[in-house]
Design brief:
Elements lengths: L16 H6 L2 H9 L15 E6 L6 H11 L5 E6 L3 H13 L7 E5 L3 H6 L12 H4 L4 H5 L2 E2 L2 E2 L2 E7 L1 E5 H6 L9 H15 L3 E4 L6 H12 L6 E2 L2 E5 L4 H15 L12 H9 L3 E6 L3 H4 L13 E4 L12 E10 L6 H11 L2 H11 L2 E2 L8 H6 L1 H11 L1 E2 L7 H16 L5 H19 L1
Parallel strand pairs: 1-2, 1-3, 8-11, 13-15
Antiparallel strand pairs: 3-13, 4-5, 6-13, 6-14, 7-11, 7-12, 9-10
The structure holds alpha-D-glucopyranose.
Length: 443
């Protein structure tokens, strides 16, 4: 069956000027004026289907694509590598959409993107292909990240939650039998191990001015009882609170007290991997994928058995841990004229078998619930059982068609507060205003 080419849609409601610009309407209008609006659709109907995704550090993606290509009848898939940094990848793909669709058919997409892409009509509504009976086989949080105005716009691929990695061997040597439960305990333990055992750094995390910096900043805010949005009213910004400010103050204290090196204010995940896996840090905050890199050719110094994983610590007096919910979904370009082939590939990549391979080889957390009780996975990938615990406390970043704007504001303020250029109070005060303005302009 061949699908009709999905018509390009707008949001279906009247847009004010700010909406129009923010949602990329200017790009669409520009493309229409140039007469390109109708022919930008992904793929040409022949040739390879194009699949975009950020750099694959695990080396498992191309193997899976090769496997698909071997069994596929009539078409092949070509991998187009996009930037590792989710923000840079987002900008690239948005530019292509604004210019009329681009040639990418299937998009490996961050969980923070669907609302914005769906609001613009850039990605295909797959509600009929992915009915409730199928959605039930997946974890709920990633499914929710794909729902916009009651329709679903893709299939969950793998999920992510911020984890505390620690050097179990070093902690044991120092007489600690458990990982830290609070940020204060983490600081004390890091200091002791650093001094007694001559380890360069206590803690490394992602403090750079980019999306990962937002995830880290939010985790300090949440684990200190603060929040960005009012849980009872998603249009109300509540970030200007003592709890949120104190959360950012804890993050800043990591640098100020020398627990973390000053350079973490420029760290992304890419700098975190060697900092921890070369043996120079006692603790690290990172996503599950880092576990797969331990003991490999690139990182022979720290072996998986030397690493422990725990939920992120909380501030003194706080109860439950909290992590940023991350992860990646498979979306289809609405302008692609190869909807049916794209769907075949999405089904293949999100199948139980493919997810199983990625979990075993790349320690990525599956989105299919059945894999959490898979015996081999539980025995060989400890990060899955521990990740399951962290996922229970994982919280989404604000779900909004304006999230990318909100994120840019948080990136700037969190990074400036981390570096001590502004106080945490100033950061949350500024964000209260700028985020409110963004949310109000969009409602
Ligand atoms: C991980 C997460 C993603 C997040 C990104 C930030 O890739 O899965 O959701 O936005 O890290 O760097």
């Amino acid at each position: 069956m061949t699908e009709r080419k999905a018509p390009r849609r707008t949001t279906g409601r009247k847009l004010n000027r700010r909406d129009f610009l923010k949602l990329g309407g200017a790009g669409l209008a520009g493309a229409a004026l140039l007469g390109t609006a109708g022919c930008g659709g992904g793929g040409s109907g022949s040739g390879d289907l194009i699949f975009a995704m950020g750099t694959d550090t695990s080396g498992t993606l191309q193997n899976l694509i090769d496997k698909f290509n071997k069994q596929s009848k009539g078409f092949k898939v070509q991998f187009r590598e996009m930037p590792t940094d989710t923000g840079q990848y987002f900008d690239k793909i948005r530019t292509q959409f604004q210019a009329g669709g681009g040639d990418i058919d299937v998009i490996g997409a961050d969980v923070i993107w669907p609302a914005q892409f769906a609001a613009n009509g850039w990605i295909a509504d797959v509600s009929d292909k992915f009915p409730e009976s199928e959605r039930q086989k997946f974890l709920d949080a990633p499914v929710q990240s794909l729902i916009y105005e009651d329709k679903i716009y893709g299939v969950p691929w793998f999920t992510d939650a911020g984890l505390l990695y620690y050097r179990q061997d070093l902690l044991e040597k120092a007489g600690y039998s458990e990982p830290p439960k609070t940020w204060t305990e983490l600081q004390e333990m890091a200091e002791k191990v650093k001094q007694d055992q001559g380890i360069k750094n206590g803690f490394v995390f992602q403090g750079d001015q980019y999306e990962g910096g937002v995830c880290n900043g939010l985790e300090y805010i949440w684990t200190n009882g603060g929040d960005v949005l009012d849980p009872n009213d998603p249009n109300a910004i509540v970030i200007d609170s003592p709890e949120a400010a104190d959360g950012l103050a804890i993050e800043h204290s990591m640098l100020q007290e020398g627990v973390a090196p000053q350079s973490v204010s420029t760290y992304t995940e890419t700098e975190t991997d060697p900092a921890f896996l070369n043996g120079d840090a006692v603790f690290a905050r990172n996503w599950p994928y880092m576990y797969a890199l331990a003991g490999t050719e690139d990182y022979p110094d720290v072996k998986p058995e030397q690493i422990g994983i725990a939920p992120l610590p909380v501030a003194e007096g706080q109860g439950e841990s909290a992590s940023a919910l991350g992860g990646w979904n498979m979306l289809i370009n609405a302008a692609s004229d190869r909807q049916e082939e794209a769907w075949q590939f999405v089904q293949f990549m999100t199948s139980e078998e493919s997810q199983r391979i990625r979990t075993l080889e790349a320690t990525l957390l599956p989105t299919r619930t059945s894999l959490y009780s898979d015996q081999e996975i539980r025995e060989t990938v400890p990060v899955v059982a521990l990740g399951e615990v962290a996922l229970k406390n994982a919280r989404p970043r604000p779900v909004s068609p304006y999230y990318s704007d909100m994120s840019l504001e948080m990136q700037e303020q969190f990074n400036a507060s981390l570096k001590g250029e502004i106080s945490p109070e100033e950061a949350v005060g500024t964000l209260q205003e700028s985020l409110t303005e963004i949310v109000q302009a969009g409602s």
